[in-house]
Amino acid sequence: MCRHLGWLGAQATVSSLVLDPPHSLRVQSYAPRRQKHGLMNADGWGVGFFDGFSDCQVPRRWRSSAPLWADVSFDSIAPALRSHCVVAAVRSATVGMPIEASATAPFTDGHWLLSHNGVVDRAVLPLSSSAESVCDSAILAATIFARGLDMLGETVVQIAAADPDARLNVLAANGSRLLATVWGDTLSILRRDDGVVLASEPYDDVYDWEDVPDRHFVEVTAVGVTLTSLDYPKGS
Ligand code: GLN
């Protein structure tokens, strides 16, 4: 399983979210603490963030198939990258999947940034000519983009029904909404005064992180955080 992190809030530097904390994604790339599948995340990394204001936000990405801990150049640039909305990931490739930058999250459709922490049988996903890679996560991202992010929870439940072994922790953002599903792996929430972090595992032991139960959908907006069970229809 990979590890991912999302941020929605005030402008923050990418380094403060991804590199600096004691158990940041950089540390999780070689020493994750809650990873259930795989020992480390050495098969690439990606950082995406939204640039611009209100209805004119552009997703920008930097992805690599090398380990995050080995990237000395990013260390110098990350403190200069600031955004109110970030999606970042470090990757442990599933057996048989290509190791290449295009297979590394975050994926995008030009409006959303999306990361997948898990595995899914590609046979249960529709064929997609818009997937960025043949990697399961890239095809899953194309499927979710095609269905629309308003259907994210329903899409995850349907794919899990078709592939009961699938693990489907998805994290997605569009600059004003940060969405996540928890289906088979860990996710924690940190509610800070200046915004909200969703992360596969806490990046420190200082603050009060909340663990999200399995089979839940999380939505973060400027209004707040909502958690919905994916086992039951919304509202029940
Ligand atoms: N299955 C995806 C891949 O191969 C994600 C793997 C993961 O979560 N470790 O990249």
From TrEMBL:
Pathway, per record: Amino-acid biosynthesis; ergothioneine biosynthesis
Bilayer-spanning residue ranges: none
E.C. no: 3.5.1.118
Pfam families: GATase_4
GO biological process, one term: ergothioneine biosynthetic process
GO MF terms held by the record: hydrolase activity, acting on carbon-nitrogen (but not peptide) bonds, in linear amides
Gene3D superfamilies on file: Glutamine Phosphoribosylpyrophosphate, subunit 1, domain 1
Keywords recorded for this protein, A-Z: Glutamine amidotransferase, Hydrolase
Signal peptide: none
Metal-binding listed as a keyword: no
InterPro entries: EgtC (IPR017808), EgtC-like (IPR026869), EgtC_Actinobacteria (IPR032889), Gamma-glu_amide_hydrolase (IPR052373), GATase_2_dom (IPR017932), Ntn_hydrolases_N (IPR029055)
Domain Glutamine amidotransferase type-2: 2-236
Catalytic activity: gamma-L-glutamyl-hercynylcysteine S-oxide + H2O = S-(hercyn-2-yl)-L-cysteine S-oxide + L-glutamate
Keyword Hydrolase listed: yes
HAMAP family listed in its UniProt record: EgtC
Function statement: Catalyzes the hydrolysis of the gamma-glutamyl amide bond of hercynyl-gamma-L-glutamyl-L-cysteine sulfoxide to produce hercynylcysteine sulfoxide, a step in the biosynthesis pathway of ergothioneine.
The name this protein goes by in its record: Gamma-glutamyl-hercynylcysteine sulfoxide hydrolase
Organism in which the protein naturally occurs: Mycobacterium haemophilum
Gene: egtC
